Amino acid sequence: MLIKKPVDIKPSEITPENVFRNRRQFMKESSRLMLGVAVAGSMPSIANAQSGASLKAPAPVGLVRTDPAYWLKNKFASIKSAPDSGPFYTGESLTPYRDVTRYNNFYEFGMDKSDPSSKSGEFKADPWSVEIAGEVAKPGTYHLEDILKPVDLEERIYRLRCVEAWSMVIPWIGFPLADLIKQFEPNSKAKFIEFETLIDADSMPGIRSIYSIVDWPYREGLRMDEAMNPLTMMAVGVYGDYLPAQNGAPMRLVVPWKYGFKSIKSIVKINFRETMPNTTWNDLQSNEYGFYANVNPEVHHPRWRQDTERRLPQTLFSRTRIETRLFNGYADQVASMYGDMDLSQYF
Ligand code: MTE
To answer: What is the number of domains present in the chain?
Structure first.
C-alpha cells in the first residue's frame, strides 16, 4: 500500500483534514506491519511535523487560524491517536474540515453561521489565562500553558448535536475535563462548575453589535458528576490541528451527549460552586433551553423537533436526515447520572 508521505504532498493539499486522514492511515499501516507500538507512539500527531514542513500552511481562504505558542506546538508533538472502537470513537463519516470550521455558532463574532470564521481575524488566543475560582483549594489565575502541562493530549471522535437539529462528527484533540478539575482540588461544596467565555469587544464584533441578544459573557455550567464523566473533554485542537478561533480557541468544552450550546468556547473562567449557575441560553429563554440540555428525541424545542437531525454537510443532492438518539447515542456512558430524573421536566 502506497502511503503518500507529507513531503510528497503539495502545500496546497495540506489541510488539517488530509493531514489527519494520512496520519490515521499511517498509524494503522504501521501497526499492521508490526512496526510496533513504539513507532506509533512516537509518531508526531501532526504528520507534516515529520517532514519539518511548517505547521502554518496557509489556511484556506476564510479560515482564521490562531498562531499557537511554542509550548502548544510541543504538546501537539505527542498526541494519543483516537481509538478505533469504544465511546471515544465513532466510525460514522467525519464532517469535512471545511464544514466544521465554517458552519459555526459563536455569537461573540456574529449570529450568522459564517460570521465566526469570517469575522474573527483580530482574535488572539495567546497569551491566554484562565481564572479558577470558588470552592477549590487552589484558586488563582493560571496561564493556559501551566494548566496543560500535566495533561496528556488525545484524539477523540465525537458526534456534535446542535439544538437547531443539525449534527456533525468531529475529531477533537484535548483531554478529560476531570484532569483539569483535579489539579485545583475542589472541596466537598463544589457541586457545580461554571464556565465563562472571553469578552473582548475589540476582536469580537458580535459583542459590539447593537443586535446582540446575549448578556455577555457567554456562560455555561455542568453538575460536578457530569463534569467528571470520562466523556467530557476540554478541546484544544480539531482535525489534528490547533483550534481555529471560530471553534473556540484556545480551549473549549465538549460534552457530546448534550446539545452543542453547552460546549462553551474560548474559556477564561472556571468557577466551582455549591449552587446551580445561571447559563446564557437558559437565562434568555428558560422554556426553550434547559440547564441540562441532554439530547433527547422525545423532548422537542418549540422551533425544532428533536427526533431527527440533519447530518452535515447537506447538498442539493444529499439531504441526509437521521434519527436522533437519546443522549446523542452515549446513553451507556451517561444515562445512570439521570436515573431518578424526569427528563421532560429537567430538559
Ligand atoms: N460558546 C460561546 N462562547 N458562544 C457561542 O455562541 N455557541 C454554542 C457552542 N459554544 C457558542 C458557544 C453553540 S449554540 C453550539 S451549537 C456550539 O458552540 C457550536 O460549536 P462549533 O461552532 O464548534 O460547531
So the answer is: 1
